[in-house]
Design a protein that fits this description.
Two copies of one chain form a homodimer.
Chain A (H helix, E strand, L loop, with lengths): L2 E4 L1 H7 L2 H16 L3 E2 L4 E5 L4 E10 L4 E10 L11 E9 L5 E6 L1 H19 L6 E5 L3 H13 L4 E5 L3 H15 L2 E5 L2 H5 L4 E4 L18 E4 L19 E4 L2 H7 L1 H7 L10 E2 H5 L13 E4 L4 H18 L3 E3 L3
Parallel strand pairs in A: 1-7, 8-9, 8-11, 9-10, 11-12, 12-15, 13-14, 13-15
Antiparallel strand pairs in A: 1-16, 2-4, 3-4, 4-5, 5-6, 6-7
Helix pairs in contact in A: 1-10, 2-3, 2-10, 3-4, 3-10, 4-5, 7-8
């Protein structure tokens, strides 16, 4: 049988943010409908090379496919070699036979499916008249969040704060070109939060930098950066009176920004309003008041990789991208 | 960068049992020297298609590579399609950068590295004058055990018992051709055990079929079949006075034939003599008397896949096998 191979270039050509947003929505709904098996994340640390390799796997009963994403972060890359620091490979298997359907570069999958997650949450929870967005962090994920958000809302101004000025410069050119929103580079978190309707955080910070006093009534917060115990971007006090939505409650409680609010004793797990799949399935009301503060905490799920890879595979076949190889 | 792709045919051409035996020995030694990270096995069950997909991963500090094996067993295959029931893919990554070095068909890897494990144990623990081997099960793994054993010992007669007569017929032609030993097809376990110096079990049995009365002093037993709780091929009483060696004590205690002897109260974990890597490293004496009964219980480890795949990759490069694809 033939297995389709897709390079980073092929994946880039097949991926459109719009398609991924619709795929991730389907994935969240499948997860909450009990149609998804998502084993624990496997993690190997390779401290001698400043590296880490994680494996996220998933069986999705709805599209009858099994996905395995092997994602590595080797921080020395780019110095000794010209390899990127993040390298990923995604394999897609037929859930009816176990046959390898497609092996694709996975470098772009994580970024775009995480961007899609943030955009989906804003579509559901942000005020419809949101125009201004604050973004923390100036890396690839920060930009991806904005590209995705601009697909679903009419954003006029993007206010970016990053500790790293070099990243920021890149953001301005790239960001304005891709989103048609005005990009304002800010010197402080306070400046970034000025007039913001939506705020998105994408940093690896271990100490929060957004104080509760900066969060206005009616704001929607997308907390992306915290994906392991010890990471923290937001004052946990913000969670006290907010409507808190998670991608996966068990994951966010142990790894996400939600964890910090629980560990601080500000909320308990019972105070979490919903998983996002429940909102997409219409099981609970969305935003109920204009002055409500809503928070979406996302730690990332194997089902997002699954549905994104499955969509890439379908589109690549339609467009005739990639090459085939017969493993068996 | 270029990733090497190897089909089942390429892997078959690159693999030699001799090479795999030496690789697996190195792997066992690395494991016992604390040079190996071996995360828990990931398992997804797909009952609607009578399928299961397992992921075994490993970082080996000695060869500085990360391996991920995705192995599926879909029992309906071969009926609705001409796909094999067992399908596997093995990925090998550079442990210094996370770069994907090689993706190979994994269908043959599990069989040959398991065969190598049994042969290594016989080389270490069986009587040097062993001539006759009893084999339970007539499938691919039964044959692989014999091929590997015949590389390390001068076996004259192979006595096979299987519930499935069809498998047996295949064994006779194939087995004699590949091993130059006389193959005797037996109607009962008792007949197979007659005059046997070594006995190897490779069945999925859930109820033991070899009684203690059939095990003579001086015999070496290789217990391959039991790899999950509930599987059982040997009368647990055999463990009472035997020298018990495991591939991995934690795995064998929870998943292997050793588990049955412990659960029955016949031995405790403290009675296990050693892990095989300790014997290879010369940390403990091997067989000490001609009338000693020795047992090697193997449940299969990620490190065996790692070293086997790494050896296949090296040989394939030398021989110019496979094709290259640039994922990144």
């Amino acid at each position: 049988m033939k297995t389709l191979l897709l390079s980073m270039k092929d994946v880039k050509e097949a991926l459109s943010i719009k398609e991924v947003i619709s795929a991730v929505e389907e994935g969240y709904i499948a997860y909450n409908a009990g149609k998804v098996q998502q084993p624990d994340i496997v993690s190997m640390e390779i401290p001698e090379y400043n590296g880490e390799t994680d494996i996220k796997s998933c069986y999705n009963k709805l599209n009858e496919s099994i996905s395995v994403k092997i994602a590595s972060l080797f921080s020395n890359n780019g110095k000794d070699s010209d390899l990127p620091t993040m390298i990923g490979t995604v394999l897609l298997f037929d859930g009816k036979t176990g046959a390898p359907l497609c092996i694709m570069d996975g470098s772009l999958i994580t970024g775009i499916r995480t961007g899609a997650a943030g955009a989906i949450s804003s579509k559901l929870l942000a005020r419809k008249d949101s125009k201004t967005v604050a973004v923390f962090g100036g890396g690839g994920q920060a930009r991806m969040q904005i590209y995705a958000l601009c697909q679903v809302m009419d954003i006029q101004e993007v206010r970016v704060y990053s500790e790293y000025q070099k990243e920021l410069a890149k953001y301005k050119g790239d960001g304005e070109e891709n989103t048609r929103a005005k990009v304002v580079l800010c010197d402080t978190p306070e400046e970034a939060m000025k007039d913001a309707d939506i705020a998105i955080s994408t940093t690896p910070s271990k100490k929060y930098f957004v104080d509760k006093s900066l969060v206005k009534p009616g704001m929607h917060i997308v907390a992306v950066g915290a994906d392991m115990a010890g990471k923290n971007e937001w004052d946990p006090e913000i969670f006290r009176d907010a409507k808190v939505v998670n991608d996966s409650i068990p994951q966010c409680v142990s790894l996400g920004e939600t964890r910090n609010a629980i560990v601080s004793g500000i909320i308990t797990e019972a105070d979490i309003y919903a998983e996002i799949g429940q909102l997409l399935a219409g099981e609970k009301p969305l935003r109920e008041r204009d002055d409500e503060i809503t928070i979406f905490d996302t730690t990332g799920m194997g089902i997002q990789d699954n549905v994104t890879a499955a969509r890439v595979y379908e589109i690549a076949k339609e467009k005739g991208l990639g090459e085939y190889f017969e493993f068996i």
